[in-house]
Design brief:
By secondary structure, the protein is mainly alpha-helical. Helices cover 58% and strands 6% of the residues. It has 19 helices and eight strands. The chain is elongated and about 100 Å long.
Length: 484
């Protein structure tokens, strides 16, 4: 063990550790779970990218010696590449970003010293003086959050689009297969399975576009605001140059937040330091996507119920046995997963709502739960929607004969009689059909209301699912309409 000193005293640090005393303090103070930043390499990567951008900027403006800047940049590149992946023991439940910021400052400083002197230590590069130059935890960590969320949203969008496209393919595949529509879980009028999947496709596409529209917000950040927004602690030229380097390093354009109609200069930076309502908005959109998936999952549950005593119109792919005691039972695992994703995302949405008022005056210090929840929600949707697509949606089959029979036996087909002869006549046909276990077409024929060749067309469940075809039928048989 080596002994390190800070303003509070001395502590032992493992000899092989690249982190230092402040990391040890933070890891001990927030030791409430077994989850540390070692599990979040994408967050560590973003922090290292910011530190590299700052070092290059500070060298450019003449605030940091070139050899130190190069050593810091090299250490950052090594972290970005995945080296030192076990050197971030700060708990994920920590006070804002100070813990992880100092953790990475110490790792970079020790590695930079090693590059320059052959030994760990802070003789050549100090974690606060050099690595954290022109920065504070209050602007670097929100910047890292923005970078992480931009990347995760982009990846999640790909999976949502993958799910969306599979629904579109199924809509085309099933466009001519009629089924019985159901309202309030009761028999209604015919539609097609293509229309079912088409509606689901529209639902997912609409919410995917909502998430897509959020991406530009995460290309703006408050890096350069330092503690509160005033930029105190920055050296001349830093704020103007750092985003050039950051954009090149992360691989997409980044810029400092700016309010177009500000009444006080840098209002967006003070706002960004104080407020975290962006998490509520993001989680609201993610909740919309998750609930859309949950709605589809629930419908798949019902459509595939049975298979002999439920609706049983969908045949889902069998991916695992459904019971440890009932042989042959298969459960709708993927639809169930959509529902569980929805439930988890809703809980994270509540967390984001709670944290909005849990900060103090000039700093939104309670973003921990919001950020962790946003990341998990994005990961759940990203991985979950792709799994559901591959293991369920693409393999769905329709029991077309059963679906057609159910549609043809619906008493709601008396709507056609009602449209031609009035509601009372339609009601009479529906009741008789139900009582005698017959179709409305059979009863209409037995009552002598419609000629057989006309009935074949008027009660064609595929045509009745087509708006234009139905209108054309009413035009064609308008002479039969007898409503007083």
């Amino acid at each position: 063990m080596r002994i390190e000193k800070d303003s509070l005293g001395e502590l032992p640090v493992p000899d092989d550790a690249y982190y230092g005393i402040q990391t040890v303090r933070c890891a001990n103070n927030y030791d409430v779970t077994n989850h540390t930043f070692n599990e979040l390499p994408h967050v560590i990567r973003a922090m290292a990218e910011i530190k590299k951008a700052a070092a290059l900027t500070n060298a450019e403006i003449g605030a940091l010696e070139n050899d130190k800047a190069k050593a810091i940049a090299q250490a950052c590149d090594e972290i970005i590449a995945g080296k030192f992946a076990d050197q971030f023991p700060v708990n994920v439940w920590r006070s804002h970003g100070t813990g992880v910021n100092m953790n990475i400052n110490e790792v970079i400083a020790n590695r930079a010293n090693e590059i320059l002197t052959g030994e760990k230590g802070y003789d050549a590069v100090h974690p606060n003086t050099h690595v954290n130059m022109c920065q504070s935890s209050n602007d670097t960590y929100p910047a890292a959050e923005a970078i992480v969320l931009y990347r995760m949203i982009s990846k999640t969008l790909e999976s949502v689009k993958y799910f969306e496209d599979a629904l579109a393919e199924k809509a085309v595949e099933f466009k001519d297969i009629p089924r019985l529509g159901r309202t309030c879980m009761q028999d209604a009028v015919p539609m097609t399975f293509g229309q079912v999947f088409g509606a689901w496709h529209s639902l997912i596409a609409r919410n995917r576009r909502r998430l897509e529209a959020l991406l530009p917000e995460y290309q703006e950040t408050i890096l350069g605001a330092t503690v509160l927004g005033s930029g105190m602690g920055e050296l001349p030229g830093y704020n103007e140059a750092v985003y050039k380097h950051l954009s090149a390093i992360v691989g997409f354009p980044m810029k400092q937040a700016k309010m177009e109609s500000e009444v006080i200069e840098d209002s967006a930076l003070f706002d960004g330091s104080q407020n975290n309502d962006s998490f509520i908005y993001l989680m609201g959109v993610l909740k919309c996507i998750a609930c859309a998936g949950g709605r589809i999952g629930n419908d798949l549950y019902v459509f595939s119920s049975g298979p002999r005593t439920g609706i049983g119109e969908f045949i889902l792919p069998s991916i695992a046995p459904g019971s440890s005691i009932m042989p042959g039972k298969i459960n709708p695992y993927m639809p169930e997963m959509l529902l569980q994703i929805m439930q988890q995302v809703i809980s994270h949405d509540m967390m984001a709502t709670l944290t909005i008022n849990e900060s103090d005056l000039d700093l939104c210090s309670s973003t921990c739960g919001s950020f962790m929840g946003s990341m998990e929600s994005l990961e759940l949707i990203d991985k979950g929607f792709r799994l559901v697509t591959d293991l369920c949606i693409k393999g769905i089959k329709v029991n077309a004969d059963l679906a057609r029979h159910n549609a043809e036996m619906s008493t709601s087909l008396a709507t056609m009689v009602s449209a031609l002869y009035g509601y009372p006549v339609g009601t009479k046909i529906a009741k008789k059909a139900y009582a005698e276990g017959k179709s409305c077409k059979e009863v209409a024929l037995s009552e002598g209301l419609i000629e057989p060749e006309v009935a074949e067309e008027l009660f064609d469940v595929r045509k009745l699912a087509d708006r234009k075809a139905t209108i054309e039928m009413f035009k064609k048989y308008s002479n039969l309409r007898k409503i007083g």
